[in-house]
Specification:
The complex is a heterodimer of chains A (267) and B (302).
Chain A (H helix, E strand, L loop, with lengths): L2 E6 L7 E2 L5 H4 L4 H5 L12 H4 E4 L2 E8 L5 E2 L6 E8 L12 E6 L15 E4 L19 E7 L13 E6 L15 E4 L15 E4 L11 E7 L1 H12 L9 E7 L7 E6 L1
Parallel strand pairs in A: 1-4, 2-5, 4-6, 6-7, 7-8, 8-9, 9-10, 10-11, 11-12, 12-15
Antiparallel strand pairs in A: 1-3, 13-14, 14-15
Chain B lengths: L3 E3 L2 E3 L3 E15 L3 H11 L12 E8 L10 E8 L2 H16 L6 E4 L5 E4 L1 H4 L8 E5 L2 E8 L2 E6 L1 E18 L2 H16 L4 E2 L11 E3 L8 E3 L21 E9 L2 H16 L7 E5 L10 E4 H5 L1
Parallel strand pairs in B: 2-16, 6-10
Antiparallel strand pairs in B: 1-2, 3-5, 3-6, 3-11, 3-17, 4-5, 7-11, 8-9, 9-10, 11-15, 11-16, 12-15, 13-14
Helix pairs in contact in B: 1-2, 4-5
The chains are: A mainly beta (267), B alpha+beta (302).
């Protein structure tokens, strides 16, 4: 058995909805039926076979080759298996997924991992706005799992995050961790304005002091956090290299809401 | 009369009778190996026998930094009782009073199992609303604010119902010094074995007991058949040359672990040979009616 490969033949002039291409739905389909699946988002009908050259036969392991930022819903509602993207991904990558892993070689669009409940998404380059945020029709953002972003994230990273962990190797945009309910963001390159606004119980971990701090966070001083040791060790096991140590300054907030959230700024 | 001998020491053809227990394991970490050990020792203090301690517990081994969840030095602790409810109570009380209170400590699950016991899940209430739950890699940890900083404790730990308690060896010798030296050697050898503990002081019992007593309400009393000062009694199991008997009790997460520990123990005792003054190695049982696990010395030695 070899991975089921979707090799993009040409750049189409409409966004594509690749949500049918998940292991659960492909498991019982023959090659011809897979090629006949509609993926168009305009009136112009497009099937998988029109856009992709399909190879391989193992639907538990999917490979997308040559995709661009208009290939939406890759791995959306994924419930197991693994998806590799050799190229970019569009919006809603891995949105509402429950299990499995997604690895993207390039960048991903808005709402990456939105309202996901479990599993793992790794994007080597950038992600758009609202990564780990709220999927259409949902009331909460990410509810579990792990997102790793190699470079930068857009605005509203982890908005309404309920549970789970997002690590950003670069910088996050404005409103990172906005209205977080709980969960954890680790930001290696800092964040834009209004980080952690409306944060109820979530943790924002900064490796360096962010430039703009909301006045509704209250300084609790520097101390050691064993939690940071646990997190660093686990991340290292996941091949995510980030030095957290244990000492950090703790700011409690957002006092405009519940105030049980925190910013841990490594000391 | 025993026929089997190891280095001149008689191995009595009998068996250790052991009984089912429930068990769990936790890993305690601290800023230094010394403080992890202090915490673990405190937690397993007064945990020699379920007869009156509520639980049997002990230190299984030290855990190197690379194996602990927080990368700090750790100690693995095993705790056993007769049923899950009592184990839950003992675990909560012991971790709550001895580990939570210990400077710089953290406490983690040490056993995976279908059945679980609450660890941080019950201790979190000490946080009085300021506790924080964090999930890392599918494991839930509680961060409880305390005067020394934060106490991190995993939400739950595993429980096994396949644990066995009461594996034992009785070491008979011509002098107390000889028996103590051989027993100490055996305990050290058993300490190298995984999944077992020897819960008594230094791993050794000098006052093995039998079930019941001539006194009402006394559930256990001296094992007079193995008391050298009572060799005159018809019940005595001791040869005339015996001056001292010490016992090693072994609790394990599995029967197999106890079997292996007893094997290691017997051979460690026999290392000094009969010239050291050890005459017999035997085991305690109740005729096979009390516990379903029978560890026959003849099979273990082989």
């Amino acid at each position: 058995m070899s991975a089921l490969v979707f090799d993009m033949r040409w750049i189409v002039d409409q966004r594509l909805d690749l949500s049918p291409l998940v292991p659960e739905r492909l498991a019982k389909l023959a090659r011809k039926k897979i090629e006949a699946l509609p993926i168009n988002t305009t009136r112009e009908k497009l099937t998988v076979g029109d856009v992709f050259k399909v190879k391989g036969n193992d639907p538990e392991h999917l490979r997308f080759v040559g995709t661009d930022d208009r290939c939406d819903n890759i791995g959306a509602k994924l419930n197991g298996g693994d998806v590799t993207v050799e190229g970019d991904a569009g919006m809603l990558l891995g949105a509402q997924m429950k299990r499995g892993t997604i690895a993207v070689d390039g960048s991903a669009g808005v709402l990456t991992g939105a309202s996901m409940a479990g599993g793992e998404i790794r994007v080597r380059r950038d992600v758009g706005d609202q990564a780990g945020g709220v999927a259409f029709g949902s009331t909460m953002g990410m509810k579990g799992g792990f997102i790793s972003v190699g470079r930068n994230a857009g605005d509203l990273l982890g908005e309404r995050l309920r549970r789970g962990l997002i690590v950003v190797g670069g910088k996050a945009g404005d409103y990172a961790g906005g209205r977080m309910i709980a969960g954890t963001l680790v930001l290696k390159g800092g964040a834009g304005r209004y980080a952690g606004y409306g944060n109820r119980r979530g943790s924002l971990i900064f490796t360096e002091k962010p430039r703009n701090l909301l006045p509704t966070y209250v300084d609790s001083g520097v101390m050691e956090f064993d939690y940071l040791r646990i997190l660093e060790k686990w991340l290292r096991e996941q091949d995510v290299r980030i030095r957290l140590g244990a000492r950090a300054r703790r700011l409690m907030g957002d006092m405009a809401v519940l105030g049980k959230g925190e910013m841990l700024i490594l000391a | 009369m025993p026929e089997l001998k190891v280095k001149g020491i008689n191995i009595v053809e009998t068996f250790a009778e052991a009984f089912p227990m429930v068990g769990t394991r936790v890993i305690i970490t601290a800023p230094t190996a010394e403080w992890a050990m202090i915490s673990a020792r405190t937690m397993t203090g007064f945990a020699t026998s379920v007869i009156a301690c509520g639980a049997e517990g002990g230190i299984e081994r030290t855990v190197p930094r690379k194996e602990t969840p927080d990368g700090r030095p750790g100690v693995s602790v095993l705790l056993f009782t007769m049923d899950a409810g009592k184990l839950q109570t003992q675990l909560r009380n012991r971790v709550g009073q001895c580990v939570l209170t210990s400077p710089g400590s953290a406490c983690f699950a040490g056993l995976e199992g279908e059945k679980t016991l609450k660890l941080g899940a019950s201790l979190r209430f000490f946080g009085d609303g300021w506790q924080v739950s964090k999930v890392v890699g599918g494991r839930r940890f509680w961060r409880i604010p305390v005067m020394g900083g934060e106490f991190v404790c995993e939400d739950k730990t595993g429980l096994t119902k396949k644990a066995v308690g009461g594996g034992n060896l009785l070491i008979l010798g011509k002098t107390h010094d000889a028996v103590l030296a051989a027993s100490t050697r055996a305990v050290k050898a058993m300490a190298e074995m995984p999944d077992v503990i020897t819960p008594f002081p230094g791993g050794i019992v000098r006052s093995g007991s039998k079930v019941g007593s001539q006194y009402k309400g006394q559930i256990a009393s001296t094992n007079h058949a193995y008391s050298p000062g009572l060799k005159h009694h018809a019940d005595s199991e001791l040869p005339p040359t015996t001056e001292a008997v010490l016992e090693i009790v072994i609790d394990g997460l599995t029967a197999d672990a106890i079997h292996k520990a007893m094997h290691a123990g017997i051979h460690a005792i026999a290392k000094g040979g009969a010239r050291e003054g050890i005459t017999h190695i035997t085991a305690g049982n109740y005729g096979g009616n009390l516990g379903p696990h029978h560890f026959h010395l003849k099979e273990i030695v082989g």
